[in-house]
């Protein structure tokens, strides 16, 4: 089993062009992102912040650009062609600045967004969605052959991790809605290992971030009923973050960082 403890995170600051994604209050979105980054640092992570790129409105969503596990980085092939430059930036950072071994996807037909890749610490589930296809799932399996890898159909126009995410060791957080529950059934049917489930009444609460023994979830203002569930069911540290403005562009808590563990010294950007 790979550890769900992390030493580093890569994030990207929000560009002015981000406001074009939706009716976003840009300054509030920046404040929310700054609080997010600050919390990652408080939890002991070495956070590498990339500058915003005005030509890439979605560059803040770094999760989609790579899958990092066991010290290896698989560079994705995002389903949206407009995001190819984001991948080039992340590849350069992971390879040149962080000295991580890089795996490229050779199949040109493959589509893969990191937001569709759920790693449980024991195995991978890859959502087959609007942004990720079977060839993308095969690329994950090939990059990390030491772990089982199972494709899971996602019916709605959502990334897999918008519906299910890891809330702790062997604990899957899942929304109560129909689409999320259908995905959970597929995971339970195909999983190599057994997991506990934490079901939250608000689907937007299902995307959580478990970092070094702390569960990060959205604020009580956004998910009042789910916060009650977290308080009742989770017996380890919790922190809440307001993601209201970032969420207008489809962001979840996992979307804005690449987490990984490494021990060698790296250079600061």
From TrEMBL:
InterPro entries: DDAH-like (IPR033199). GO terms for molecular function: amino acid binding; dimethylargininase activity. Keywords: Coiled coil, Hydrolase. The active site is at residues 159, 256. Residues 19-46 form a coiled coil. Pfam families: DDAH_eukar. The keyword Hydrolase applies. It comes from the Eukaryota. GO terms for biological process: arginine metabolic process; citrulline metabolic process; positive regulation of nitric oxide biosynthetic process. Belongs to the DDAH family. PANTHER family: DIMETHYLARGININASE, DIMETHYLARGININE DIMETHYLAMINOHYDROLASE. This is Dimethylargininase.
């Amino acid at each position: 089993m790979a550890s769900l403890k992390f030493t580093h995170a890569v994030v990207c600051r929000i560009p002015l062009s981000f406001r074009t994604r939706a009716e976003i209050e840009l300054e509030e979105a920046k404040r929310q992102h700054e609080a997010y980054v600050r919390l990652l640092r408080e939890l002991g992570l070495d956070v590498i912040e990339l500058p915003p790129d005005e030509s890439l409105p979605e560059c803040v969503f770094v999760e989609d650009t790579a899958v990092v596990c066991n010290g290896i980085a698989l560079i994705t092939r995002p389903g949206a062609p407009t995001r190819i430059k984001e991948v080039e930036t992340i590849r350069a950072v992971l390879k040149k600045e962080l000295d991580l071994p890089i795996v490229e996807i050779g199949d040109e037909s493959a589509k893969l967004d990191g937001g569709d890749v759920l790693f449980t610490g024991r195995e991978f589930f890859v959502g087959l969605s609007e942004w990720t296809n079977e060839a993308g799932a095969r690329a994950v399996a090939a990059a990390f052959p030491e772990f089982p890898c199972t494709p899971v159909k996602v019916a709605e126009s959502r990334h897999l991790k918008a519906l299910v995410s890891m809330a702790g060791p062997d604990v899957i957080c899942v929304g109560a809605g129909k689409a999320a529950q259908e995905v959970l059934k597929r995971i339970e049917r195909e999983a190599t290992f057994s997991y506990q489930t934490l079901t939250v009444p608000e689907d937007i609460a299902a995307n959580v971030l478990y970092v070094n023994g702390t569960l990060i979830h959205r604020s009580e203002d956004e998910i009042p009923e789910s916060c009650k569930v977290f308080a009742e069911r989770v017996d380890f540290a919790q922190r809440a973050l307001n993601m209201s403005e970032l969420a207008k562009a489809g962001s979840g808590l996992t979307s804005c960082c690449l987490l990984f563990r490494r021990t060698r010294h790296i250079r600061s950007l």
